[in-house]
Every structure is written in C-alpha cells, then in structure tokens.
Write a structure and sequence with these properties.
The complex is a heterodimer of chains A (163) and B (350). Chain A has 163 residues and is mainly α. Helices cover 52% and strands 9% of the residues of chain A. Chain A has seven helices and two strands. Chain A has a two-stranded antiparallel ribbon. Chain B has an eight-stranded antiparallel sheet with strand order 2-3-4-5-1-8-10-9, with helices on one face. In chain B, a hairpin with a 5-residue loop joins strand 3 and strand 4. Helices cover 46% and strands 15% of the residues of chain B. Chain B folds into two domains: 251 residues, Creatine Kinase, Chain A, domain 2 (2-Layer Sandwich), CATH 3.30.590.10; 90 residues, no CATH class. Chain B is α+β, with helices and mostly antiparallel strands and 350 residues long. Chain B contains eleven helices and ten strands. The chains are: A mainly alpha (163), B alpha+beta (350). The interface between A and B is large, with 39 and 49 residues.
Chain lengths: 163, 350
C-alpha cells in the first residue's frame, strides 16, 4: 500500500482518525506522518521512563531530601527526580539516601564489584608514599638534617604536583 | 579527518569475519567515564564544556587509541557529516544532535572510538567483527587503563564509576552483540527468544526500528544492569546466553531448508534479483532485501558474494553515506535513486 499523501513511499503508519464521531483510516509513510505530526506513536524517552520510575519509587522514601540541593552543582532532589539524571558526580553522595533504594531496583545491587580506576589504585600507593615521606621529613627536621629535609620536601612537592 | 576517504568502505567490525560471523555481525562494548568536581555534561556551562573538550581530547589521544587515531570536533561540523558518524556507530544520535564543544576520537580501522562530552564526559567504545566479547573487553579494558592513567575518573568505592544517569553507574559498561536472526523471524519464534533472553537480565532491541519484528532481522542483545557485578561477570552472562540464540537461529535455518527450501530460495533469489535490477529503493526496503541476501550467502545458496560486501551495504546505503559517496546533498527522492544505482554497481548488474 502506498502512502496516501505522497503516493510514493510505502505506507507504514496506519491510523484511525475520529473526527466528529466519524471514523477514517489514514495510511501514511513515515516521512509524511512526521511532516503532518500525526500518526507517530509517542516514543517514550529514557528520561521520561526514568522520571516516572523515580516518582513512583523515590518519593515516599525520603521526605527529608525534598529541600536538599547539591552544594557542587546546585541540583535539587526534586530536579533530579524529574529529569532522572544527576547534575554532577557528587550528587550520588548528596542524594544517597534516595538513590540507594532506586539503584537497588534498577540493578538489584548497591555495591560496585567491577573495575577500580588506575589513578585510585595509584593514589592509594601514593598516599602511603606521601605519609612515609612526611614522617621522614619530620624526623629529618627534628634531627636538624636540613639537606635531607630539603630533598624530602622536593620529593613530596613533586609527588603532589603529579596528581 | 577527511571523512570522504571513509565513505566507500565500512569499519573493520563489519568485514564479516570472526567466530559465528554468519549470525553475529559484531560485538561492541562501551564504558561511561566522568571527571570528578565538574558537572555532568548536561549541566556544564559552554566554557566548562570547552575546557573539558580541550583537556580530554588531548589526553585521550595521548592514551593511544590505535593506528592513525585522530580527534574530530563536532562543533560546526555539518549535519551530513555528523549523521555519517552516527551511521558508522562512531557516535550516538544524541551526540550528533547536541550542541557545544564536543567531539570524537577514533582510530583509522574504527575498532575504537571515544566520544567526548556526550551524556558523560567520556564514552569509550570498542568494536569487533564476529562473536568475540572477551577480546572486545580486553581491548577496551586496556584503553580504559591508559586513559585512566591520564584522566582522573569520578569514582566512589561503594558505587563505582559515577555516571550522569543512574542506570549506568558502577561499571559504566554496556556490552552488546549485534545478531542477524532472519530465520527466527520467518519461523515466528523470535518473540519467545526475546522473552527468554530478557529473563536473563539482558535487553533485546531491533537495530532498525522498534518492536520485536525488527526490520532486516537485526537485533542487539545487551546487558541492562551495570552495578553489582564485575565487567567479566556481565560479559560472561552475554557470552553464555548468545550461543543459545545462535543455536536456535541455526536450527530455524535448518528447519526452513528442510521443510520449505523452495520458498526460502525463492525469497532469497527474488531479493537478489530485485537488488540487482532496482532503479529506486528506500532504505527500509534495502535492509529487508539485504537481510534475505545475507541469509542466502550464509546458507551457501548464493555463492558469488562475500559477507563483508553485504555487511557493508547495510551501512553504505544509509542516507548520509550515500550523500558522502555522491559528494553532494540529496533529497530523499534522489537518495532512493542513488541508493539503487549504488547497490546495482556493488552487486554487479545482472
């Protein structure tokens, strides 16, 4: 069947229009349907689905979050629920109480068991190294070994700059 | 990057080789990553986006994406070129249609791509032809390590990688396998398969069009959950589910060959004949006939074509590709003519 508007492309949208109680079938191709802004089935965006899920699940759980805004990006909990997206990484900590039950429903879990990024792994090693260097620096200063202290201070400086 | 040089062939992941390539077109894995202390992209100011794009594009390229890798800013790039990148799966539709400083880096073989300032600051992707989920993971895992050494990621010990959308938090990973399942469609078993796969916590959707009867019989199977399981567990779930789908598709093909071989051959050869003589053809019709032809080649019924050619045709006959190949903007009506010419030329006119 050809589209009754352009008579060129195959009709893929079949809609029943009811005007003044009178039924009429309309057969259109996708392009004409889009042009006429009818016939296209409402496509639910992930956003809409998320937000309705959020509304359904998050509302009852955390009334105390209703006035909370993220100190980093200013997103409020209400805004988050509406859009289904966080404003910044910190939002996960700020809205944690509302998020955890929601995450549990989406993922069936609330704890990450996957990959840990390289920099965190390195940072942990680096933190230990910094701690050790600072202790050595203190000892060096206490014992008036200033040359060594200067060298240690430089190491600490380089390590911290490298972050 | 000169996109015109890419226009006449598709990325390596479509060359039709690798394990179970008769059914599995390709594997793709993407990782969502963000920088701490900066808003997610949707809430960035234009200045923040520009700073992020400058910093991230440089570090991503430094992380060695692969041979001939380049970063392409999408700001000010015309619509056809952006759509062209979407058709090649190098960027998402959302990334193409967004505004502000953003871009994509990819290697010359198109096995890796990194979107900068999509929904998340970074969306890293790896592609492979055929069914190689573990190999695809190994490639993206290594690239993620290299980028992770140069870019600090927003990460929480409890929740893992922090992403703009809570549906991606944790691993930030979406692993998907693109499957060609024409026989399951013809034998009307596809809906049961889809239901069964969904029970395994996996999502199934048509590559073209929505609904269970996807056009061209092309489906994507991917994980839904990203939190609470390791990347390898998630990939393992896909790696153990997909072979069952492959077996079912093979059985359906065998059943068709045994019970209605003439009808099947007729369908395939009609599609072949049509594609070789067509003068005007829409993209949707093309996909359906290419699907039949692909099945015919895989069943050994059509032996004069290779799979790479047919796989490529799925991409090269899409609107932006035709316009790049033709070197000019085309109205939909002209496109259908150019598409027909291109298909005839590729398949060798009868």
């Amino acid at each position: 069947m050809l589209c009754e508007n352009c008579n060129e492309r195959p009709a893929t949208f079949h809609v029943v229009e009811i005007t003044d109680g009178e039924k009429r079938e309309v057969h259109l191709c996708e392009e004409c349907a889009r042009e006429k802004k009818i016939a296209l089935p409402p496509s639910l965006s992930l956003n809409e689905i998320l937000s309705s899920l959020m509304e359904a699940h998050a509302d009852k759980d955390v009334p105390e979050l209703s006035d909370v805004a993220c100190p980093s990006c200013g997103m409020t909990y209400a805004e988050f629920k509406q859009g289904g997206r966080l404003g910044c990484p910190r939002g996960y900590a700020v809205f944690k109480k509302g998020l955890l039950p929601f995450l549990d429903r989406i993922h069936g879990a609330t704890t990450h068991r996957g990959k840990v990024p390289r920099q965190i792994t390195r940072d942990a090693g680096q933190a230990a190294e910094l701690l050790r260097l600072r202790r050595e620096l203190n000892t060096a200063v206490e014992n008036e070994r200033y040359e060594e202290a200067a060298r240690l201070r430089d190491r600490i400086h380089t390590l911290r700059e490298g972050r | 990057m000169d996109l015109n040089t890419l226009a006449r062939h598709a990325g390596e992941w479509l060359r039709g080789t690798g394990a179970d390539a008769d059914i599995v077109m390709s594997c793709r894995i993407r990782l969502a990553r963000n920088v701490p202390d900066v808003p997610f992209v949707a809430r960035c100011t234009p200045e923040q986006k520009a700073e992020l794009a400058a910093m991230l594009s440089e570090r991503v390229l430094d992380a060695d994406i692969g041979e001939g890798a380049q970063y392409m800013s999408l700001e000010g790039v015309d619509q056809i070129d952006r759509l062209f990148l979407v058709e090649r799966h190098l960027i998402s539709t959302e990334h193409a249609e967004a505004d502000g400083a953003r871009g994509v880096a990819f290697d010359v073989r198109e096995t890796m791509s990194v979107m900068v300032n999509e929904e998340d600051h970074l969306r890293i992707q790896a592609f492979r032809s055929g069914f190689h989920p573990e190999e695809t993971w190994a490639a993206i895992d290594a690239l993620d390590d290299r980028i992770g050494e140069r870019v600090q990621y927003a990460f929480s010990e409890q929740l893992g990688h922090l992403t703009a959308c809570p549906t991606n938090v944790g691993t930030g990973m979406r692993a998907s396998v693109m499957l060609h399942l024409p026989a399951l469609g013809m034998t009307r078993q596809i809906e049961q398969v889809v239901h069964a796969v969904q029970k395994m916590g996996l999502a199934v959707r048509g590559l073209y069009g929505e609904g269970t009867q996807a056009s061209g019989g092309l489906y994507q199977v991917s994980n839904q959950m990203t939190l609470g399981k390791s990347e390898l567990e998630i990939i393992g779930n896909i790696a153990s589910t997909v072979p069952t789908i492959i077996t079912m598709e093979r059985k359906a093909r065998e059943a068709l060959m045994a019970q209605s071989r003439e009808q099947l051959e007729d369908k395939i050869w009609r599609s072949y004949g049509l594609l070789r003589s067509v003068r005007v053809i829409s993209s949707g019709e093309t996909i359906d006939h290419l699907s039949h032809l692909r099945l015919g080649v895989n069943l050994g019924l059509v032996d004069r074509l290779d799979m790479g050619t047919i796989n490529q045709l799925f991409i090269l006959t899409l609107p932006a590709h035709l316009q790049k190949i033709e070197g000019r903007e085309l109205e939909p009506r002209q496109r259908d003519i150019v598409r027909a010419n291109f298909i005839r030329e590729t398949l060798g006119e009868a």
